[in-house]
Amino acid sequence: MSEPPGDPDALERLLELEQRESAVSRKRRQLHRRIEFVRGTGMFEPGTHELLETLQDEERELSDERRRLHLQIDRLRAEGSEP
């Protein structure tokens, strides 16, 4: 794994991004559990398909945000490991 950046501002930014990534990942895991619950218990209830579509859209948005955060984190770490 790469070294954290030596620049205090970059280190602060890295910590902020890691905290955001952790929060997004937590929300995403909770959403995955909710999606699985809806799939397993309510597929024949009125409105379930619409709810499932909404939840899946949210999951895609969170996954996209998480991916962007990972790219930013990786970039900062790579910059910190350069001589």
Write the layout of secondary structure elements.
Blueprint: H1 8-41, H2 48-81
Helix pairs in contact: 1-2
Protein described:
With 83 residues, this protein is mostly helical. It has one domain. The protein is 82% helix and 0% strand. The longest helix has 34 residues. The mean pLDDT is 89.
Main beta sheet: strand number and arrangement?
Answer: none
By DSSP, the count of extended strands is 0
Please give the count of helices.
2
- Rg from alpha-carbon coordinates: 18 Å
Beta percentage is: under 5%
Q: Summarize the helix and strand pattern as letters.
A: HH
Global outline: rod-shaped
N-to-C span: 15 Å
Descriptive labels:
83 residues, mainly alpha, 0% strand, 2 helices
In short:
By secondary structure, this protein is mostly helical.
